């Protein structure tokens, strides 16, 4: 499925297309199994940033496509997780294995530079492929009960290793924050002047919520300060 999708991107770019490209395909792929083959159903897609972005359009990002996949699977009642992947065509550090529990669902990757040059791609190009059979088996979409009380938001930024996926660091932030953390969202990544080699600055928005009442400002500050102290104790340099 992936070669066909990349072929569509390459064809359009060679024809002079400069805008963003977002396409998907649903179908069956042919995989060898023993002396025969199987034809599992797949959903594949590509997202290309494009060179000509008008009217305030934002460039495609790994995190943006990841959020789209999460929303798609959530609509099927599946809560997916992302782990460091190893697709041979993927950019180092920007390739993820997608799972639901112990079930491998697919992958998300940014195409590595050498392959991007072969395709005449000058901007970031992201690809994903999902096994749709488990998604269909899980059946009816699940909708959690809406939160009764509002969340309070605080930001935290710190230096972290450039070789550890931000997904895993976000998971650690949530774990260190404890049961009052409703969500952790990465909103900024910086690696450049002023940042030590081999590190990058990550900024997260942390949502704090109590299930039975509204948290006071003092309570939120206390929870957030405890999180900052826990991060510092784990060796992260707070900013």
Q: Runs with pLDDT <50, length 5+?
A: none
Give the count of structural domains: 2
CATH topology category name of the largest domain: BirA Bifunctional Protein, domain 2
Helix-strand string: HEEEEHEEEHEHEHEEHE
CA-to-CA gap between the ends? 44 Å
- Specify the CATH architecture of the largest domain: 2-Layer Sandwich
Within the largest sheet, what's the order of strands? 1-4-8-7-6-5
Mind describing the biggest β-sheet? 6 strands, antiparallel
Provide the gyration radius in Å.
20 Å
Q: Average pLDDT across residues?
A: 87
Q: Tally of extended strands? A: 12
Strand content: 35-45%
Number of helices: 6
The assigned structural class equals: alpha+beta
CATH class of the largest domain: Alpha Beta
State the helical fraction.
25-40%
- CATH superfamily of the largest domain, by name, is Bira Bifunctional Protein, Domain 2
Overall form: globular
Descriptive report:
With 239 residues, this protein is α+β, with helices and mostly antiparallel strands. It folds into two domains: 136 residues, Bira Bifunctional Protein, Domain 2 (BirA Bifunctional Protein, domain 2, 2-Layer Sandwich); 87 residues, Ferrodoxin-fold anticodon-binding domain (Alpha-Beta Plaits, 2-Layer Sandwich), CATH 3.30.70.
Write the layout of secondary structure elements.
Elements: H1 2-14, E1 21-28, E2 31-33, E3 36-38, E4 41-48, H2 62-75, E5 81-84, E6 90-100, E7 103-111, H3 113-118, E8 125-131, H4 132-137, E9 152-161, H5 166-177, E10 181-190, E11 199-208, H6 217-233, E12 237-238
Antiparallel strand pairs: 1-4, 2-3, 4-8, 5-6, 6-7, 7-8, 9-11, 9-12, 10-11
